[in-house]
Amino acid sequence: MNPISLASGVVPEFGPVDTIEAARAGGFDMVGLWVDPAEWTAGNTRDARAALSATGLPLLDVEVIWLKPDSAMDDHRKVIDVGAELGAANVLCVSSDPDHARTAARLAQLCVHAEGSGMRVALEFGIFTEVKDLRAALAVLDQVAHPLRALLIDPIHVDRSGTTIADIAKVDPALLPYAQFCDAPALRPDPADFDAVIHDAINLREQCGEGALPLAALHQALPANIPLAIELRSEMLRNAFPHPALRATAVANATRRWLEALA
Known about the structure:
By secondary structure, this protein is of the alpha/beta class. It contains eleven helices and eight strands. It has helices at residues 16-26, 42-55, 73-86, 100-114, 134-144, 155-160, 165-169, 194-203, 215-221, 235-240, 244-262; strands at residues 4-6, 30-34, 59-67, 90-95, 120-124, 149-152, 179-181, 228-230. An eight-stranded parallel sheet has the order 6-5-4-3-2-1-8-7. Strand 5 (120-124), helix 5 (134-144) and strand 6 (149-152) form a beta-alpha-beta unit. The longest helix has 19 residues, at 244-262. It is globular and about 40 Å long. The mean pLDDT is 97.
């Protein structure tokens, strides 16, 4: 069975230590952390390192490096530096820069910065970004041409972008060190309605197997047994489980039931 990680988006209102402790209480194998370079301090790093050590959880990823035309590379490098200090395996990146050549050049710089850290620099596509689908993401990564570059697959973005499972199955497995997972309703937001797209992505995700996405086929198309970051941003779950450990437990249990049903 794939190892599963608590993505930071499941518990967005909580800090790094609470996220790590919720992941352990919920029975996750790994955890992911949100690192805001403007707010993250040396104390956050110290406390997160201690919590990771106490729980024994590996840090699957840190997020998010959000490339924008005017964003500062020093801020992006800080996210990688924090991840390296904490032993993260990946850093998640998205781009709102319409210049794909500039996106590729900056991703290449980040890959160079990540050298020696053990981290992969994973580009996520989605209709809420300027790298809207798999084709565009692969074209950017072809320009990066660095061994640390990676691709991050998220089922809701696969579906909403019109990317097919057949296309996912053709991706070089070396580009896929991990994936995100969730389910979602069949109704797709209007791609031209940015607010509806964001609402769909941060409030309407569903437990694996409870929505309409072809998750079993997507799971089959991915490399066997890669870690799955359960990116289940859900207003319903936030309301039903205000305590982070209880929310994490509900998500982990549902995810494992779904994975077991695949066997």
